[in-house]
Amino acid sequence: MKLKNQPEIKLGVVGVSRDCFPVELTRRRLAALMAAVKKAGVAGVVDCPVTIENECDAMKALDWARREGVNAACVFLGNFGPEGPTTLFVEKFAGPAMAIAAKEENRSVLASDRGDALCGLLNFSYNTGLRRLKVYIPQYPNVTPKEAVAEIRTFIGVARTVVGLRSLKVFGFGPRPEDFFACNAPIQPLFDLGVNVQENSELDLLVQFNKMAPRRREIKAIAADMAAELGPKRNTYPELLEKLAQFELALTDWYETKRGAAEFAVFADKCWPAFQPVFKFEPCYVNSRLAGRGIPVACEVDIYGAVSEYMLECASGEPATLLDINNSVPDDIMPATAKLFGASKRDLFMGFHCGNTCMSCMKDCRIKYQLIQARLMGEAITKGTLEGQIKPSDTTMFRLQSTSDAKLVSYLAEGRFLDVKPCSFGSIGVVGIPEFARFYRHVLIARRFPHHGAFGFAKTGREIFEALKLLGVDDVNTPRPAGVLYPGENPFA
Fold this sequence. Notes:
Layout: E1 11-16, H1 23-40, E2 45-47, H2 55-68, E3 72-77, H3 83-92, E4 97-102, H4 117-130, E5 142-143, H5 145-165, E6 168-173, H6 188-193, E7 196-200, H7 202-211, H8 216-234, H9 241-258, E8 264-269, H10 275-279, H11 284-291, E9 297-298, H12 303-316, E10 320-327, E11 348-353, E12 366-369, H13 371-377, E13 383-389, E14 393-402, E15 408-417, E16 427-432, H14 436-445, E17 452-456, H15 461-470, E18 476-477
Parallel strand pairs: 1-2, 1-3, 3-4, 4-5, 6-7, 6-8, 8-9, 13-16, 15-18
Antiparallel strand pairs: 10-11, 10-17, 11-16, 12-13, 14-15, 14-17, 15-16
């Protein structure tokens, strides 16, 4: 069963033209932009038949966007553009918006067809300030058609993140474990972002699980799908699959029936210590399967971790996972030929969790029992993790978090899961992030972030950074290069 849990972005490109410039200049340049979009195969991008020259045009363009189901907009200054009507359109448009401007094509246009869009974008920016609007303007907003395609691709990831978050519900099951107060943060800032949080009891989850028992045909179908996905080598405990399938059905049924007004949902579940004695298994493999479908299930009732995973999945369109920023990397596991991709040995660490990373993100894996919990509870009831090495790939490490006084903070870094055997248990991989050692000390520790980080399997720092700005999250911490000190960093260290 495939569950859709991300918004489909339909991006409307709206040309604007100031009345003292020829409207054909914008129309011609917009046609060239759309031809480049089509050639590049970027889906879900449509151009508005109305060119905005005045406020009446802005209202017509808004009507078109509503009729066409456009949920993100790109304002295109084919020439100077009318800043008042253009920003009126952005103000009244319901979704996220970006703005780009046309470069002059060649020498021949300079004589009379010069668009002056560089100048127009300055006035547009001033007017967005007057209306207190947040608009995505790229680092280099004056573009050729080919360059516009690259910016549109980026913005689709940004828009998918913003739109998804504004119609998201987080289902929490149980209170945060006692020794994980770091996962317990005020939820007011999430409501401020438009995220709904529904907190439930662990007993609610048990009742839901038991309610699924009569649905034997569905349970057997899910168990068969699990067996096919795992294959004989990874299916270490075949007798466990129907219990895991019943739990998966319980979560997906809850997802379908309890979303209410929200279009999308994620989970933050209490997975220990009471879970195993009652359910008689670990939930990790089920969590990994749902994460692979765009429905993160965060461990230890980490509500902000679930939201962070979801944002990474929206930005990339690929699965994400939640890992402890866990342990250092001893020299004797590092091959002499290991590539560190700009990190030093000091910047290496292992990202680990019990077994929640989906199979598509693993180099090798199989169903196991959870070693740490088995020390307390025995092997019999701690089976169900998906353990192995996380596959070598690019990664984005990200967390959105509330401080104890309900202010949003975040961190964001790009690096790589290295092709190094971790020689340890769990879903685990060696991570290299340039300048991570200082970042760990002066951001993660100094700013009091919790032990969980969300990890995506692509470099989406650009998309997440811009989405955070559109959402009004200004406290974004990133690694600083060597020689650039963090606040409070000892310059003599």
